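Sample pair:
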Amino acid sequence: MNMIKKFTNVIIGFSILIAVWQTVIVIGNYEEALFPSPLKVGEGIWTLFTDGTLFVHLKVSLIRFLIGYLSAVVTAVILGLILGRLVKLWNIIDPIIQVLRPISPIAWSPFIVLWFGIGDIPAIVIIFIAAFFPVLLSTVSAVRKVDRTYLKVAENFEIKQPHLLTKIIFPAAFPFIANGLHIALGTAWIFLVAGEMVGAQSGLGYLIVDARNSLRLDLVLAGIIFIGILGLILDKAIQLFERWVEKHWGMLPNK
């Protein structure tokens, strides 16, 4: 019943959104060439489905995203676990991270394109940069917040590295690390589209740019809709992974 209620709420919410969308077009008296109607966008989505264009761009974008995001997460978590324990070293590195972190990954795009050319790699590098810093900072912060009782128990049982990190510190820090995974996912997904607009010839970002150049704003909105839907699906996937890990470690009751 809970799932049915959630599904009903989603239908109601999207129905309201479509109604507001159509109302704005009618009241503003916008031409469809400038502001496509829901029906026109629906026709564009159907066109992308039937000619296979959508699946090609979706596949490319998802592969790029998964490579960039997962490599950033693995690298950032490993470094964060280590640096979170080495306080003096982190105090030296932290100012450098704080200077680099606010710089938009797109600002690096001229160098990235020059170094890696045009294709998949620039988009993957941009995704990596976008996801790396949130996960690193959340991991370091999580490690430093680990309950000292856990560390004393590990010391009493003479648990040494690397088992201390993998068996004690990482499970205890994971709930806080998960927050960084969610933030990094949203940030990386946003910059995936931006990266594909800069140095790629395929993907959802390229689809939007190509549709804009062809003055097909219905396809532009179709691409935007699929970006939002996929972002939601990916975030839900992270939530499922988070719950699986917590159940695996006995942090949630089995249902």
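The chain has ten helices and no strands.
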